[in-house]
From TrEMBL:
Keyword Ligase in annotation: no
Domain TrmE-type G: 211-350
Enzyme class: hydrolase
Binding of Mg(2+), residues: 225, 246
Name assigned to this protein: tRNA modification GTPase MnmE
Compartments, as annotated in UniProt: Cytoplasm
Obligatory cofactor(s): K(+)
One Pfam family, short name: TrmE_N
Species this chain originates from: Paracoccus alcaliphilus
Keyword tRNA processing: yes
Binding, K(+): 221, 240, 242, 245
GO molecular function terms listed in the Swiss-Prot or TrEMBL record: GTP binding; GTPase activity; metal ion binding
Binding of (6S)-5-formyl-5,6,7,8-tetrahydrofolate, residues: 20, 76, 115, 421
Record keywords: Cytoplasm, GTP-binding, Hydrolase, Magnesium, Metal-binding, Nucleotide-binding, Potassium, tRNA processing
Length: 421
């Protein structure tokens, strides 16, 4: 593959800017600009020159083909972190025949060269986008091969089951039914239950990865927007004493003790002759129904039963105006009760991620579901059929890791990466 380069650090001013090169010819390019090629994986300080002109002084690292991120020859230049330096060095590399990499192209090469499977690539993509602790942990597990190792264990179990069947078949006498060893059924049952476990943990893992949606709902003037602003500590939404101030849904993304949560400010729920307000109320209802949890706000403690679900929280607002308060009461003016509300919300959401597995994408889920369905009914089946089911299960696992059937996902996955990764 041709020689590509890109700035691997974020564009802009900083301590260091990293330019990475990958592909056949990276070694020659390094020699040309930095002189003698250092020992692999040893950072050395070199002058970067373009002919007679000195471009920068940089730490240079050399990785041999087969032991780099992409699997190809890779060179890294840690330049002084000024955009003008990066521009100058990039121009020199381009003039020397290197091509500017596309988004995700380094990772794509790592995948194509078998350095990473698709599950690890997806984990890496999630890691680069992670905003909270819970997202970082899940993503890092997958980026560092957590799901891949699990699948490898499953594959070994399938191989063993297949081998046990093979030795049990008596090819000499085709009329006598062969006994399939019990261990085969034992392995297949265990696999099925492990697949089911991952499927059961999908919803939680997906929530960890994408975050939760929590709708703040209630009648007009309940104080919904005021709560959102108080949590955001800035004026995210308009607040006024006019009923029907909020129309569109306003999203506020927060890090709730490590959980990614999007709070939705919504239009006050009421019948309205104002066409625009009515559209807002429709949106509010629809989003409230699809949200993971609802905070039902009102100054009287009333809730809208048609939107109530288990796990929702009823919140009495404007506690500063009431003589006494019961239940979950908050004031967006004084801040009273808001930390308790967020603690309660965290408790409820964290319960829902407790069983999270490693499978956190629809693509992965569909593959593992197929694997589980293939092994749904294995008891009393003859060896030839069992052998075929084992083969099909292995195919589903290959799909899970992107060893086959990945083509349609590749462009989507890699285009979401940044340039330089
Ligand atoms: N005293 C007091 N007033 C509050 C409190 N929260 C909100 N308000 C007032 O109540 C009025 C309505 O507040 P909003 O936050 O706009 O209410 P909302 O539920 O978003 O209203 P809509 O968007 O119209 O549905 C405003 O005048 C706020 O200043 C509170 O905790 N205490
Ligand atoms: K209002
Ligand atoms: Mg509002």
């Amino acid at each position: 593959m041709d020689l590509i380069f890109a700035e691997a650090s974020p564009p802009g001013r900083g301590g260091v800017s990293v330019i990475r090169l990958s592909g056949a010819g990276a070694r020659a390019m390094l020699e040309r600009f930095a002189g003698r090629v250092p020992e692999p994986r040893k950072a050395v300080l070199r002058l970067i020159r373009d002919g007679d002109e000195q471009l920068d002084q940089a730490l240079v690292i050399w990785f041999e083909a087969g032991s780099s991120f992409t699997g190809e020859e890779v060179a890294e230049l840690q330049l002084h972190g000024a955009p003008v330096v990066v521009r100058r060095v990039s121009a020199a590399l381009q003039a020397a025949g290197c091509r500017q990499a596309e988004a995700g192209e380094f990772t794509r090469r790592a995948y194509v060269n078998g350095r990473m499977d698709l599950a690890a690539v997806e984990g890496l993509g999630d890691l680069l986008e992670a905003e909270t602790e819970a997202q970082r942990k899940l993503a890092l597990q997958n980026a560092s091969g957590g799901l891949s190792r699990k699948v490898e264990t499953w594959r070994q179990m399938l191989i063993r089951a297949g081998a046990l069947i093979e030795v049990s078949v008596d090819f000499a006498d085709e009329d006598v039914p062969d006994d399939v060893p019990n261990e085969v059924f034992h392995i297949l049952h265990q696999l099925r239950s492990e697949f089911s476990g991952e499927i059961d943990g999908f919803h939680a893992a997906e929530r960890l990865r994408k975050g939760f949606e929590v709708a703040v709902i209630g009648p007009p003037n309940a104080g919904k927007s005021s709560l959102i602003n108080r949590i955001a500590q800035r004026e995210v939404a308009l607040v006024s004493d006019i009923s029907g101030t909020t129309r569109d849904i306003i999203e506020l993304r927060i890090d709730l003790k490590g959980l990614a949560v999007t709070l939705l400010d919504t239009a006050g729920l009421r019948e309205s002759n104002d066409q625009i307000e009515a559209m807002g109320v429709d949106r509010a209802r629809n989003r409230a129904l699809t949200a993971d949890l609802r905070l039902h706000l009102s100054s009287t403690g009333q809730v809208d039963d048609s939107l109530w679900s288990d796990g929702d929280i009823a919140v009495t607002t404007k506690a500063d105006l009431a003589a006494q308060n019961t239940g979950m009461a908050i004031s967006s003016v004084t801040g009273a009760g808001i930390n308790q509300l967020l603690d309660e919300l965290y408790e409820r959401l964290s319960l829902r991620v407790s069983g999270a597995g490693l499978v956190s994408r629809q693509r992965q889920l569909s593959a593992i579901r197929d694997a589980r369905d293939t092994l749904q009914q294995v008891d009393d089946l003859p060896p030839e059929i069992l052998a075929e089911l084992i083969r099909q299960t292995a195919v589903s696992l290959d799909r899970l890791l992107g060893r086959i059937g990945a083509e349609e996902y590749l462009d989507v996955i890699f285009s979401s990466f940044c340039i330089g990764k």
